[in-house]
Amino acid sequence: MASIQKRGKTYQFTVSHIVNGGFKTKKEAQIASAEIEAQLTKGS
Questions:
Q1: Measured between alpha carbons, how far is 23 from 3 in angstroms, rounded to an integer?
Q2: Are 12 and 4 in contact (CB under 8 A)?
Q3: Within 13 Å, how many C-alpha atoms sit on residue 20's CB side?
Q4: Of 35, 1, 39, which is closest to residue 21 (Cα–Cα)?
Q5: Hey, is 26 helix, strand or coil?
């Protein structure tokens, strides 16, 4: 999902990925989200 905002004379976009695995605890969700963020940073 992309969000587009105007900043002065230019535009910027933000892309967010929503992954919901139905985790039992907040800690499990935090670990899973950190893994996804690491993969996105590496470009996979």
A1: 26
A2: yes
A3: 2
A4: 35
A5: helix
